Give the backbone structure.
Amino acid sequence: MRKSADEQDAWRLEERRKEMRYTLILRAGILEQNGKTSFCLVKNISAGGVQVKFYARPALDTGACLRVADERPVTGHVAWIKGDIAGISLDEELDGATLLRVQQKLHANKRRAFPRMSIEASAVLRTGGRVLRAHVHDISSLGARVRAPSGLGAGERTIVELADLPAIRGYVRWTDGDEAGLAFETPIPIQIIAQWVEARAGLGLT
């Protein structure tokens, strides 16, 4: 049966929407809004908008900033919320090159694939028979940046103990004075780390 003019226009609009949108699976991001920062998962992205799965409910019709990997932050406002999914309308359209970079898997030795959340938390590090007190400055699913006054050496194996999280095995990837970058042997699922950060924020611990 021949489609009406209105049906044809609607079909063309839907096809254009599909062409513009790139499906993304489990791309970690950080959503900043009203001075609050939280982890999220980018579900899909187009030149003019982004859909994210959130772990801390954002404010509707309010400005927001989204960071994905090492790409420059993009700004917009939360246009809609349905369940644990939010739609962000961007202030400026993204060009095709940026869309493809965000879509592709980033090489760990060139670009950071998972953004890190700034946080202030205490930790216990167990390494080489020593037990060290450390301060965590930022954290992601893959690692953390810590300050350990007693000092750590690059390549050292360590067990990281954080309140309300299972012990995490990892190693020291780099050091700079009393600061060190830790890489986790097994990534922490983003929903676990996001809920941990949110719970600490709710208790005033971050």
